[in-house]
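User: Need the bound-state model for S-adenosylmethionine:
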Amino acid sequence: MGRRVILLRLVLLINAPIVENLLLNFRARKPPGETVGMIEEVERENEGKKRFGGLGGVRMREVPKEDFYFTSKMARKVLGSMERDEDAIEVSLDLNRSSLHLLLQGNYLILPTGKQVERSALEHIAKTNKIYIYRQDTFSPLEIMNNNYYKLVPTDRAPTLEISGIQMHRTKNCEPFSDARQKVGEAVRRGDVVLDTCGGLGYTAIWSRRFGAKQVISVEVDEEVRAIRKDNPWSSEMFSESGITLVDGDVFTYIGSIPDNYFNSIVHDPPRFSLAGELYGKEFYRQLYRVIKPGGRVFHYTGNPYSKGKKRDFVGGVTRRLKERGFTVFPRPEKLGVLAVK
Ligand SMILES: C[S@@+](CC[C@H](N)C(=O)[O-])C[C@H]1O[C@@H](n2cnc3c(N)ncnc32)[C@H](O)[C@@H]1O
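Assistant: Bound-state model below.
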């Protein structure tokens, strides 16, 4: 059974009344007459990557895609325009990567495919802090309930991943994609072979390639994380970039299979210590030292231990253990981590 079917079933189990309501209300309708809500793309996410064959920034028409993403903020914006009886609205249907002007007809938002979304569906989405994907005429929240609860959480730009209430990226005074850029910028140089120890949504892997890495090996242990990122438009480059190799597994085990002096740089972005203590331990640091080339750089994200109320010696402990393994360590408090050089 396909992952998406499992996801939908889980959603139905967890959220049966809500989903039933959604399925009832959210089914898109056939457009009246020839109405098509397809509009010019006016803006796009534009950080070194063009999605449409180098035409970034140019006004153009595109063939409508079938997957559209809705957030509460965007739903509220559309509802506001409906209130004001406006005819059109500029919104993003791909989580802030680009924006479109869409038509409004009374209580309906007209999608680029010509399908209509009812006001009641938008009212429901407006009340949640989830991301809904509209696919095959149905809305489903991007979430998975298992031993943990996983959900993609909207921000004003790229989403973050929340695992049982813990966010995997910085979102305060920062947004997740830029957060990844800063981490990668500390370690990765053009032509590098890079280890991305904790792949997550793939932002660090994507930035490693954008910084010119020749090859990136990105390891992710969690099946649910790997499933959710497939539906995240901001992760798409990690699947389309030939220079990124995805490894499904535990980096602690995987690193043991790597030859000595293999990587030029490593981005080590583990979950917090309480969730993955072994990735902050002496043995793992020994492996990091072994697999990186002399002169190679590791950016190790340590979280927010510099902030008030946290134990002041947390970074001290990380630094000490890295030094014991042979690294020279430079604090990077503004990036919430340390740079370790072999
Ligand atoms: C802070 S997030 C990484 C975010 C990621 N760098 C990005 O750009 O989106 C940590 C990730 O590490 C994964 N993880 C935890 N333990 C791991 C392990 N032993 N091996 C590989 N991945 C692991 C978690 O499932 C989670 O997705």
